[in-house]
Design a protein that fits this description.
With 149 residues, this protein is α+β, with helices and mostly antiparallel strands. 15% of the residues lie in helices and 19% in strands. It is built from two helices and five strands. A five-stranded mixed β-sheet has the order 3-2-1-4-5, with helices on one face. The longest helix is centred in the middle third of the chain and has 13 residues. The protein is elongated.
Length: 149
């Protein structure tokens, strides 16, 4: 096989023939141990937000349980926590679960109280403890040598 002038020139300049280009294989990140449940909260149930690290970069997701996409993507963990707490504060009953980079739960915050219907007359008004109307003696010592000016 005859070599062309361009091939000979290339070998003289670079010392060898060009190699066949190999496409780089995409690097798959290791699977994260963080699993956000796909269960959607029923009306009146607690809504749970998870703050988790992203596998593709160094950013953080705020994902609502049952949601298919993140509710927010933040540059830092602190910003993601603020966003999740902001979402939870707007709900009657919510929880924020914060994960570390290894997937373990580091903190949990709960918001609101469960609403339980009260039956009529089931609870009595609170009674005061102790006698708050009783006059108490002044227990401070009086120094008779001190004069008020």
């Amino acid at each position: 096989m005859k070599s062309s002038f361009a091939t000979e020139l290339f070998v003289k300049l670079f010392g060898e023939l060009p190699r066949k280009r190999v496409e780089p294989q995409p690097v798959q990140p290791p699977p994260s141990g963080i699993m956000v449940p796909d269960k959607v909260a029923a009306p009146g149930e607690r809504v749970v937000y998870h703050v988790t690290p992203r596998r593709s970069d160094s950013r953080w997701n705020v994902k609502k349980e049952g949601g298919s996409k993140p509710s927010a993507v933040c540059d830092t963990k602190e910003l993601a926590i603020e966003a999740a707490r902001g979402f939870a504060n707007n709900l009657a009953l919510a929880q924020v679960i914060i994960h570390n980079k290894d997937g373990k739960v580091s903190q949990e915050y709960s918001y609101g109280a469960p609403t339980e219907p009260r039956s009529a007359g089931a609870s009595e008004p609170a009674k005061p403890v102790g006698d708050w109307n009783r006059e108490t003696e002044d227990e401070t010592e009086v120094d008779r040598n001190v004069q008020d000016s």
